[in-house]
UniProtKB/TrEMBL annotation:
Name of the protein this chain belongs to: ATP synthase subunit delta
Entry keyword Cell membrane: yes
Family membership noted in the UniProt record: Belongs to the ATPase delta chain family.
Function text: This protein is part of the stalk that links CF(0) to CF(1). It either transmits conformational changes from CF(0) to CF(1) or is implicated in proton conduction. F(1)F(0) ATP synthase produces ATP from ADP in the presence of a proton or sodium gradient. F-type ATPases consist of two structural domains, F(1) containing the extramembraneous catalytic core and F(0) containing the membrane proton channel, linked together by a central stalk and a peripheral stalk. During catalysis, ATP synthesis in the catalytic domain of F(1) is coupled via a rotary mechanism of the central stalk subunits to proton translocation.
Cell compartments where the protein resides: Cell membrane; Membrane
UniProt entry keywords in alphabetical sequence: ATP synthesis, Cell membrane, CF(1), Hydrogen ion transport, Ion transport, Membrane, Transport
Membrane topology note: Peripheral membrane protein
InterPro entries, per the entry: ATP_synth_OSCP/delta_N_sf, ATPase_OSCP/d_CS, ATPase_OSCP/dsu
PROSITE patterns: ATPASE_DELTA
GO CC list: plasma membrane; proton-transporting ATP synthase complex
Main location group: membrane
Amino acid sequence: MAELRTLARPYAKAAFEFALGAKDLQTWSDMLGLAAAVSQSDRMQQVLASPRYTAAQKAAAFISVCGEQLDAKGQNFIKYLAENNRLPLLPEIRQLFEALKSQQEKSIDVEVSTAFELAGDIQDKLAKALSAKLDREVNVHSSIDKSLLGGAIVRAGDTVIDGSVRGRLAKLAEAMNA
């Protein structure tokens, strides 16, 4: 995983810098999302892994599947990745691109797992509190986790805040055993 991230980083950074310079971050985000999805399809993975096809043929097949949803610059990016045998890295490239984009836009997606559905006003208060703490605009996505007894688990990038009952009991047990 770390090796894939290391290989994908320069491509993601180049795509991000180009998109930022062209003031076209959202279009590139959409194109990379599509390209990542196409690269993960079973049929496309067979084509990309096949030694029968040249890099140009792989790029042409990839671009034909994406259709007109890739502009000329996006098609050039796909061709460049194909020449360097890096098309399988597209999911990782997209992930790194999205991280750079959210950092630039000073926003972050936060996943909140709770035992029960959050009311709208509570979700708004949580978003405001997290926005102040993280110094970013927060986009809250909530999900229900029936394995939680109560409380919530908040995931914001690499940060995890475990406010669940189970997490608090585990901390208490750890403190008592120490």
